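Fig. S4 source data, part A: sequence.
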Amino acid sequence: MIDAPQADNQIQYVTNFQDLISTSFKGEVNAICYRRKLIGDFSEIVRKIELDGNMAELHPEELLELQLSEQGQLARQILLNDLKNLKDHGASPTLNLIKYYERDDTYPFFPTDVYSFHVDRSPISTDTFLCTYYGEPSDIVPNSQAMQKVLIPEIRAELKKLYGGADEGFESFLSEYFFDLHYQPKPNASIISLGIGNLWKLAIDHPESKVLPCLHRAPIEKNGENRLMIIC
């Protein structure tokens, strides 16, 4: 795995939030990164929140109720600012504390959970924003270094068995059950870590998109270490 600063030409870097939202995807660029080093103690916020299940959404009111040290307060202000900036931009961000995501074992030969490299899809023009503040960060992989899983012969054969219908409806079946959104890295693919504190804009699959959607995945969490991240 390599860090994003060493990544290929699918990534464009900016130095502020306004450039992040105003810079358009073009050519091979389908990931834009507002690269930054954050101040404050985000681990303190993670420790203060008790998870009942595997994940929870944190709201500004809940953050404001926390009794925090000076470093914790600095971290809280960054979270509140990021939530506000994204909402003002028209996005619907959620701040999540994550122990783990649910795994998909419906089809053992083809898991469709977020730990698999996948693209996001929308019927309208929009982007995916995300930032990891604490815990393992998400990954992306260059489009040229991965293959759509439904095109891998042995997987496609299993999907056709599962489908069991007329050939003309097979592609619709793949889309309906989201199989076509998932990708498998090629051998020796460059897996790119999105890092801690960087705010990212990723291209998704929508009718007006002029670039390929960005392939991304959630990381396997470390035992006993919850992740704190914004996504929308």
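Fig. S4 source data, part B ends here. The chain has a mean pLDDT of 92.
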